[in-house]
Amino acid sequence: MAFLEDLKQGLSDVTKTVYEKSGQFVEIQKLKMKKNSLNSELKAAYVEIGKMVYEEKKAGVEFSGPVVQLCQKIDMGLEAIQEVDEQIEEARARATVEDGTFDESDIFEEEVTDVTEKTDTTEETAEEAAEEAVEEAVEEAVEEAEVPAEEAKED
Questions:
Q1: 125 in a domain, yes or no?
Q2: Domain containing 9: what range?
Q3: Quick one: pLDDT at residue 94?
Q4: Secondary structure in 3-state letters for 40-71
């Protein structure tokens, strides 16, 4: 009976420890989530300050040093985005096919010609392979027939 009591007490202690540790884990996770939320709010405030400074710079307010460099970096980034937007529009325009400007027969004729050429080549290759296989089979048959014939001569 003492063994069962000890086992029961041990399991109880383990359960209590797991419960306490999981409670601590949950508490830590809640605090980490709160910290992440505060960091997000802080980043949003920095972004707002940056936007305000950039707008003031565009409006003609004079800044110096790093603020000017950052504003120039933003200008270059906006120009790069504009160029990419233009490239996207050009790609979309090339991808769009209007009725009457697309003659599918041009594509299909080229494909049929290519396939025909490949088929002719494949047929020639297949015929050559078949001829070689027949020749090899005939040679093997002749060799096999010669062996029994030689044995018959010896008898």
A1: yes
A2: 1-61
A3: 78
A4: HHHHHHHHHHHHHHHHHHHHCCCCCCHHHHHH
Tens digits of residue pLDDT in 95-150 = 765 555 555 555 555 444 454 455 455 556 666 776 777 677 666 666 666 555 55
Helix ranges (DSSP H) in the chain = 2-59, 66-95, 104-154
Query: Which residues fall within 8 angstroms of residue 50, CB to CB, at 6 or more apart?
Result: 70
Q: Are residues 51 and 83 in the same domain?
A: no
The CA distances from residue 46 to 8, 39, 117, in Å, are: 57, 10, 66
Residue 150 and residue 128 share a domain? yes
Q: Report how many domains make up the chain.
A: 3
The pLDDT score that the predictor gives to residue 25 is 84
Pair 41, 35: CB distance under 8 Å: no
